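Need the bound structure for adenosine-5-diphosphoribose, inputs here:
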Amino acid sequence: MRKKVTVVGAGNVGATVAQRIAEKELADVFLTDIVEGLPQGKALDLQEAAPIEKHDTRLVGANSYEGSKGSDIVIVTAGVPRKPGMSRTDLLGTNAKIVRSVVEQVAPLSPDAVLIIVSNPLDAMCHVALEASGFPKNRVIGMAGVLDSARFRAFIAMELNVSVENTHAFVLGGHGDTMVPLPRYSTVAGIPVSELISRERLDAIVDRTRFGGAEIVDLLKTGSAYYAPASAVKEMAEAILKDKKKILPCAAYLEGEYGIHDLFFGVPVKLGSKGIEQIIEVRLTEEERAALERSAAEVRSTVNELKKV
Ligand code: APR
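Answer from helper R.:
Posting the output first, comments after.
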């Protein structure tokens, strides 16, 4: 049977995710948005590119949810993006209401789906989605770490003038400025990155990774990044649809792992057809653990803000 992915929000991230999934023929795509004509227009435009891109993916757009029925994955990108000067947390009130209403409508139609959350502030929106869906924790996953580590890898490759394919990077923590890129677990062709890049340069790369989202917002001025976020979502969706058992950094609901309780937080997980099939725990130095705890405290304070909206 053909697989089906629903993408909620046909804006920059949603439409680009639809394009990436269609072009890889990972699944048929149902695109939905509240703006009249937008998902229909983008789905049709992408369908008309199919003969040239050589894929047989079916794309359908609508302003309702009926067509999403029986999806294997539902990707939630609905919400407002950041503008210059805004932090992800500034989106909390608006996006919490949007994500709640979207998930309440979409989850009953696809009770076995895996939810991938993209809307920001990411970790808090995952809490909203977990509660609104009633899904088990392994089927509610936040996209952040794959994007953050892709940024880290891109900067490492640029620094060393090597193929991005040689790079592996490791990022833990919340999807915010306190995220914890871990150079100790990051490698180039298996060589620890600290052997190849000076401490000073590495610190600068780690910093650029941390503020990678803001760097794009400042350049675009009217919205936030979408090409790399869409690629990150596509990689997660592919691991789930193909039951690849791929280890990727994602926001997962922690119940004691890494000493963190009842919080969505970025950690390495094994992704397969059931969603999160395992949370991988690695040993941390004292300094890394302290950074992780700072990040967890920040995420927790944003989640607590949710109770006020
Ligand atoms: N139901 C469905 N779609 C909605 C709803 C809703 N209740 N509310 C808003 N949307 C749609 C908007 O109409 C818009 O088309 O969500 C889409 C968001 O698209 P963009 O404004 O282009 O934003 P984008 O860059 O795609 O970012 C979406 O992902 O990375 C995060 O921080 C980012 O929270 C933001 C989200």
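Comments: The chain has nine helices and 14 strands. The two ends are 42 Å apart (CA to CA).
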